[in-house]
Design a protein that fits this description.
Number of strands: 5
Number of helices: 4
Helix content: 25-40%
Structural class: alpha+beta
Strand content: 25-35%
Radius of gyration: 21 Å
Strand order of the largest sheet: 4-1-3-2-5
Low-confidence stretches: 1-18
Shape: globular
Largest sheet: 5 strands, mixed
Mean pLDDT: 79
Order of helices and strands: EHEEHHEHE
Amino acid sequence: MRRVRPGTTVSHGGRGSRAGEERALTSVAAGDRYRGGEARDLPRLWHVTLSVSGEPAPVAEVRRALEQLAHDHPFLLTSRYADDHAEIRYWEEARDLHDAAAVALRLWGEHRRTAGLPPWEIVGLEVIDRATYRSRVAAGHGPVPATPVGVHPFP
């Protein structure tokens, strides 16, 4: 099934508009939303916290590897680390929680070699929607919004 914006014509050859075929344009007032699609099919933002741990590694190497991961993937918000564990927080755009979690569970392993990450295992994963994240922060139970972005040692 192909989805088409309201007011546009469908090309039946898959090659765009045919010669002489007009395309109807519609204007949209500010704040209007398209009501034709299923909301569950649209991507949403999910806040991901990935925790990893393993045998101790030199702290300088852990920091360098996390900085490389952040450079390769600028969506990473904050990484905290010690010599035997780390925590990565970021926003993921995905259709549902299952998709966001699947991407998060692959992150460490897929980038272990290219970023030089330690051979640690994933020991924790939290994926929450934006509304839950905001309510936690508002209630004082989430990370403080002023938490510095970047790679930092655990206090």
